[in-house]
Amino acid sequence: MADALLLPRRFIASSSAAPASSSSASSSAPSRLAPFSPPSSPLRARLAAAHQHPRPRRLARHQLFQVYAADPESSAGEQPKWWEKNAGPNMIDIHSTVEFLDALRDAGERLVIVEFYGTWCGSCRALFPRLCRTALENPDILFLKVNFDENKPMCKRLNVKVLPFFHFYRGADGLLEAFSCSLAKFQKLKDAIAIHNTDRCSIGPPVGVGNVDLLGSASPQEKPAEASPR
């Protein structure tokens, strides 16, 4: 108390008021260390979300080639091959001689058109869409598809040497016509349909392939089939 009395009055007033002024200054003045928080907006929210998921790493040139080269193979594996497609219930794939004979027997008096084809045959592939369209336009005709490579002994016994090759069968009449036909000569197939797809009644059981022994044990001499020109 004695020391306080010795100090000037102005010094005592200023020293006692200093804490109040400093506290009020710190409370009123904004701090320079406080972070700036701008107003929120949809764009800013999207940008913030994008920063949470960093961009994928860019692939090198050879890696990009590997990725794009693998895609066509994977997509192609999901799609059926051209010879595996069928136009409808009146188009059937034949995988053996027994299936072929059974199909002819069960067809009765129905006209049966047999196409002998090869998966490697460009003419067969070019003609196939037109054949499917013809099958859709003639639901009363039975279309049989015979893969030459799967049924070589049978095809040789039926004298199939050029692909695509066609046989026409009907009931007890057996084999009506046989010829080679490409896309350029497709009218030949349509003319044969107009001739043979008429109402008729045969007497007797279906004869199938006639006198040809398709189930014999002796295998004929095999020669590669040829593709007819388109």
UniProtKB/TrEMBL annotation:
Recorded GO CC terms: chloroplast
Pfam families hit by this protein: Thioredoxin
Compositional bias annotation for Low complexity: 14-35
Keyword Transport: yes
Chain spans, region Disordered: 14-56
Signal peptide from the UniProt entry: none
PROSITE patterns named among the record's database cross-references: THIOREDOXIN_1, THIOREDOXIN_2
Record-annotated membrane-spanning stretches: none
Superkingdom of origin organism: Eukaryota
CDD domains from the UniProt entry: TRX_family
InterPro entries named among the record's database cross-references: Thioredoxin-like_sf, Thioredoxin_CS, Thioredoxin_domain
Keywords: Disulfide bond, Electron transport, Redox-active center, Transport
Positions of the Thioredoxin domain: 65-230
Family recorded in the similarity comment: Belongs to the thioredoxin family.
Record function comment: Probable thiol-disulfide oxidoreductase that may participate in various redox reactions.
Descriptive protein name: Thioredoxin domain-containing protein
Species of the source: Urochloa decumbens
Lineage: Eukaryota, Viridiplantae, Streptophyta, Embryophyta, Tracheophyta
